[in-house]
């Protein structure tokens, strides 16, 4: 069941209706039932890995909680030590599950090939949303281990946290201590929150159906002809692909957050206008925020406080000087986190290189920050000027575009070919000779896409200062309703949907 | 407490109002986006809607015709009314699917009690809806929601699912909410789509007058020979190589031309017969003449189909009247068809209708009726037919006589292109003189230019010259005229523009544009190549005169 389908609209409407009509103590059961129905539409087999993961996490967390809560059982350090093996075991189970979902089919088919069996149809059981729920569960058991959170006593409540349907497919990666209490608390109908949530959902649909799916027509066509396309067209397609990716991913999050808001629930923010970032590090603090904070909290921080690493860092500092020792403490956790981030997105060398690319960019900008500052001072660059900020935003955007080129074509050879074409075979005349309008988007649709991107940019600019929904709520009724109608009918008229068009796939659903 | 309740009530009312406005806007926008013209056949969609606008107290037809485009081109309800006083209505639609015919039959009996239902059997053999979307869309986009429509939607969704990758639910949904199908027309919208004043009153009672002439490309004999060859081709021979070994197999396939009645067609006939009987109506099966190669047109009507249909009708106890092979209607395949033999033009329809009227009168005892709506429509129909007859006149002198007959409501614009004098006969010159032109046609030199404007029979301007010449003026209704005539050395052109739109064919000889002042539209564009001695009228293949537009304009006054 896609978030863009009549079935989802009906499920969402029925959920909202039952949620507010039934007694408040039943609200979480309504959500659980809706989530099970939603997930079941992708096939009952999907439940096997999800149930395995959630039961393992439930039992492990419960056991750890019992150790911590027991009146006798030794000192805090002893209890923590008892729990550690338990934590490591369940994390291993979850990671294996994640690996199984990512590379299981390859492994099985490799074995089938080795044994010279004829059955190529054997596949690993698909596990929809596995990247999201395993990370949520790892954070859950780790937080219980570190005593930042308490274990669930009711498995069904943990199941709801895992399976909560607006976020199961593409996040955000919620933390148990933030979301679970909200899911089980009663919520009274709040008109303002309901309207705000609905507005956010509609905005999400606009970004997905009008912008992302429209740009996808051009992007897919150009990258499909990447071997022969000129550099100028590839550059345009790569830039639009970056915008498309943002609209696609953030729209799914907007729909999830908006729907939750209608129910009185607050999901974590996952995007904060990333294209306004002035550096790579800032970009990743604004893009897929919950993934970034997850890696920071559960990979970087544990590594940074690891006694072994600290010891190694001290030895390096003693031998090569304090700056090198400090750099070592930056490089190891950051590069580890970035390679893992790449592999979280997908397996394959392209994603390893992608992770290394971002790791190097971020580590490089951190380590060489003093030199860069000296350079800007020497060149008399006013780093507070608007033009410098715009340059920085453009530079960050281009870094992101290059990152996309590393992964979108599917193999590194083609990525290299695209980068070469952009530099060596630019053919700028293709930008004005009409070639652009023959690649999946005709002239009116291309112009429309540009207008919509401008609207998106304008709204983002306004949002940087203050919530647009709050501004609208304070404006007069004619303006406010007109804005709602324009947005709604823009989706109806300009949305890419209809008979024969498969609008069901969000880019981040595959994780 | 009271304030909170008031606040809540206010919000509920606001939400309801917001939703109502949204729905209103949605239906208005949907009305704009649903095509107002069936582009595949150039047929306005308001026609099918006009059936649902019929007031049964004003019009309760004695006869309904249903079927494909053969019906709405080949049967003229106004002719039936004029000659026999029979009040009839055409419910034919382009490539009407079998389920569409059944739908209309059921809808007819909701409000009307016709004595006879006449069904053209074309779709029983060749249902174009298996291949085309518009045959269904034309109906479902323009008819109100009902149980019958939902049944039709099921058939549509099933048919769509069989020939495309569109799912049943998607196709079904697109029938209920057409915006789902048409929203991406935003870059194709034109002024016509925003015209909400388009009349649903179809003065021709369902007939489509295609007033041009394109002679049949093939004879009836050729059609039957071609069908026989295509019907014979019922097997596909395959040569398959398995591990280098040559294997041959012959697999049965459907013949390229189907002369047998499919099972569901027989079921449809039985169902139609049952519905008619339950409602006290008679069902008459007919076949409007068609002459085309089956290779080119799947609805070509051959002797084999005729025989099959006769046998099936006899077995079912139904009347079948084959207007192609059972009787000689005097169809002239050179002049009575607008598209090479696939359909009838109004002149062919006159002949078909005359026979059908006589048959209905004789076999079904239909009393002549007087109907005020049909009386007023008849006036428009006759005017339209009179104008349509311009297409049937080919000789220069006869054409000038026809122009004289209609001089009270037309303006004639003439411009020579390149050379017009060599082939002018004495008779032609006499006809020109008789029409009121005074130029020295007999004394014209080779490649002299000529321009004339005759408004309501009065020659407003005429000039012969040995140079390029132009004439610009305004007609009494304000229409701006720009004319140009040029010989071989200055462009070889004859331009006749009305309000900036070019109408002239700009072909060698005398180019004529006829403008109707009542309808304020061009009703004929013709060239007589008077450089040659034999100079019959030459026209463009497409229709110049749009009867829908013409009648709407004269009805609007």
Question: What can you tell me about this protein's structure?
Answer:
The complex is a heterodimer of chains A (511) and B (557). Chain A has 511 residues and is mainly α. Chain A has 21 helices and no strands. Chain A has helices at 6-21, 27-40, 47-69, 76-114, 130-145, 155-163, 165-168, 176-184, 191-224, 231-262, 280-286, 289-304, 307-320, 322-345, 349-367, 369-378, 386-407, 412-424, 443-465, 468-474, 477-494. Chain A is globular and about 80 Å long. Chain A starts with 5 loop residues before the first helix and ends in a 17-residue tail after the last helix. Chain B has 557 residues and is an alpha+beta fold. Chain B contains 18 helices and 19 strands. Chain B has helices at residues 2-33, 46-52, 69-74, 77-84, 98-111, 122-125, 134-140, 147-163, 168-176, 179-182, 220-232, 263-278, 303-316, 346-364, 372-388, 396-405, 426-434, 547-556, and strands at residues 37-38, 43-44, 63-67, 88-92, 116-120, 235-242, 245-252, 282-287, 319-322, 410-417, 449-455, 458-465, 469-474, 480-486, 493-498, 501-502, 509-516, 521-528, 537-538. Chains A and B meet through helix 21 of A and helix 1, helix 9 and helix 10 of B.
């Amino acid at each position: 069941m896609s978030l863009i389908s009549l079935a989802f609209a009906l499920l969402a409407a029925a959920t909202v209706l039952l949620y507010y009509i039934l007694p408040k103590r039943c609200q979480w059961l309504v959500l659980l039932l809706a989530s099970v129905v939603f997930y079941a539409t992708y096939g009952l087999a999907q439940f096997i890995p999800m149930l395995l993961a959630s039961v393992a996490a439930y039992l492990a967390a419960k056991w750890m909680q019992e150790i911590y809560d027991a009146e006798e059982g030794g000192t805090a350090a002893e209890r923590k030590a008892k729990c550690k093996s338990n934590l490591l075991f369940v994390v291993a189970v979850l990671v294996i599950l994640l690996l199984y979902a990512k590379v299981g089919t390859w492994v099985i088919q490799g074995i089938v090939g080795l044994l010279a069996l004829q059955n190529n149809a054997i596949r690993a059981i698909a596990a929809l949303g596995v990247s999201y729920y395993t990370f949520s569960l790892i954070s859950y058991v780790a937080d219980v281990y570190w005593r930042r959170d308490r274990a669930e006593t009711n498995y069904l409540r943990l199941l709801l946290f895992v399976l909560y349907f607006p976020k199961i497919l593409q996040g955000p990666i919620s933390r148990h201590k933030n979301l679970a209490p909200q899911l089980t608390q009663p919520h009274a109908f709040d008109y303002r929150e309901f309207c705000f949530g609905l507005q956010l959902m509609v905005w999400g649909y606009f970004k997905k159906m009008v912008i992302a799916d429209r740009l996808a027509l051009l992007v897919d066509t150009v990258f499909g002809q990447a071997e022969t396309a000129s550099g100028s067209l590839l550059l345009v397609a790569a830039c639009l692909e970056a915008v498309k990716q943002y609209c696609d991913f953030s729209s799914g999050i907007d729909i999830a957050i908006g729907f939750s808001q209608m129910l009185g629930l607050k999901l974590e923010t996952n995007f904060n206008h990333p294209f306004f970032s002035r550096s790579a590090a800032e970009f990743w603090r604004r893009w897929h925020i919950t993934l970034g904070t997850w890696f920071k909290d559960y990979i970087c921080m544990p590594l940074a406080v690891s006694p072994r690493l600290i010891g190694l860092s001290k030895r390096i500092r003693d031998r090569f000087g304090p700056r090198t020792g400090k750099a070592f403490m930056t490089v190891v956790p950051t590069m580890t986190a970035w390679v893992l981030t790449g592999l979280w997105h997908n397996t394959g060398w392209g994603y390893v290189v992608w992770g290394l690319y971002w790791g190097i960019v971020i580590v490089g900008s951190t380590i060489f920050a003093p030199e860069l500052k000296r350079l800007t001072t020497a060149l008399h660059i006013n780093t507070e000027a608007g033009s410098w900020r715009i340059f920085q935003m453009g530079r960050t955007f281009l870094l992101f575009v290059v990152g996309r080129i590393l992964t979108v074509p599917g193999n590194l050879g083609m990525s290299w070919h695209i980068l070469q074409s952009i530099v060596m075979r630019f053919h700028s005349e293709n930008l004005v000779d009409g070639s652009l309008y023959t690649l999946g988007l005709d002239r009116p649709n291309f112009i429309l896409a540009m207008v919509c991107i401008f609207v998106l940019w304008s709204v983002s600019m306004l949002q940087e200062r203050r919530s647009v929904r709050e501004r609208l709520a304070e404006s007069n009724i004619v303006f406010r309703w007109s804005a709602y109608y324009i947005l709604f009918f823009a989706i109806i008229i300009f949305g890419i949907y209809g008979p024969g068009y498969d609008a069901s796939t969000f880019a981040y659903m595959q994780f | 407490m009271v304030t909170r309740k008031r606040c809540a009530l206010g919000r509920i009312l606001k939400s309801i109002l917001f939703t109502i406005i949204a729905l209103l806007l949605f239906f208005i926008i949907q009305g704009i986006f649903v095509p107002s013209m069936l582009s595949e056949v150039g047929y306005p969609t308001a026609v099918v809607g006009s059936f649902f606008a019929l007031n049964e107290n004003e019009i309760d037809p004695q006869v309904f015709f249903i079927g494909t485009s053969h019906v709405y081109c080949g049967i003229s309800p106004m002719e039936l009314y004029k000659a026999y006083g029979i009040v009839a209505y055409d419910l034919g639609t382009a490539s009407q699917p079998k389920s569409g015919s059944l739908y209309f039959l059921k809808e007819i009996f909701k409000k009307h009690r016709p004595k006879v239902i006449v069904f053209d059997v074309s779709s029983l053999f060749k249902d174009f809806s298996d291949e085309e979307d518009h045959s269904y869309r034309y109906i479902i986009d323009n008819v109100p929601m009902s149980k019958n429509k939902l049944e039709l939607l099921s058939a549509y969704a099933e048919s769509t699912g069989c020939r495309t990758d569109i799912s049943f639910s998607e196709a079904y949904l697109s029938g209920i909410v057409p915006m789902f199908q048409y929203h991406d027309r935003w870059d194709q919208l034109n002024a016509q789509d925003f015209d909400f004043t388009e009349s649903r009153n179809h003065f021709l009672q369902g007939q489509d007058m295609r007033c041009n002439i394109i002679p049949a490309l093939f004879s009836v004999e050729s059609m039957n020979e071609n069908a026989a060859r295509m019907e014979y081709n019922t097997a596909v021979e395959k040569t398959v190589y398995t591990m280098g070994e040559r294997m041959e197999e012959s697999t049965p396939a459907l013949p390229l031309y189907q002369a047998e009645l499919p099972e569901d067609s027989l079921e449809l006939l039985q169902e139609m017969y049952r519905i008619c009987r339950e409602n006290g109506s008679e069902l008459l099966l007919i076949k409007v003449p068609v002459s085309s190669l089956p290779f080119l047109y799947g609805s070509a009507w051959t002797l084999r189909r005729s025989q099959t249909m006769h046998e099936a009708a006899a077995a079912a106890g139904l009347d079948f009247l084959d207007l192609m092979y059972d009787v000689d209607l005097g169809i002239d395949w050179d002049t009575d068809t607008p598209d090479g033999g696939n359909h009838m033009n109004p002149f062919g329809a006159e002949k078909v209708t005359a026979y059908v009227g006589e048959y209905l009168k004789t076999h079904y005892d239909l009393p002549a009726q007087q109907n005020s709506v049909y009386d007023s429509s008849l006036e428009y129909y006759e005017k339209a037919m009179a104008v349509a007859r311009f297409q049937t006149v080919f000789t220069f002198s006869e054409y000038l006589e026809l122009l004289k007959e209609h001089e009270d409501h037309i303006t004639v614009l003439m411009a020579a292109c390149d050379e017009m004098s060599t082939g002018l006969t004495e008779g032609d010159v006499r006809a020109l003189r008789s029409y009121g032109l005074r130029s020295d046609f007999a004394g014209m030199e080779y490649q002299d230019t000529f321009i004339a404007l005759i408004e309501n029979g009065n020659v407003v301007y005429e000039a012969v010259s040995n140079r390029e010449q132009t004439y610009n003026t305004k007609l009494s209704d304000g229409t701006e005229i720009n004319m140009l005539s040029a010989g071989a050395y200055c462009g070889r052109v004859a331009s006749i523009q009305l309000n900036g739109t070019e109408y002239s064919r700009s072909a060698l000889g005398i180019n004529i544009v006829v403008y109707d002042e009542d309808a304020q539209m061009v009703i004929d564009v013709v060239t007589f190549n008077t450089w040659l001695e034999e100079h019959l009228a030459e026209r463009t293949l497409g229709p110049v005169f749009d009867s829908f537009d013409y009648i709407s304009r004269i009805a609007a006054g």
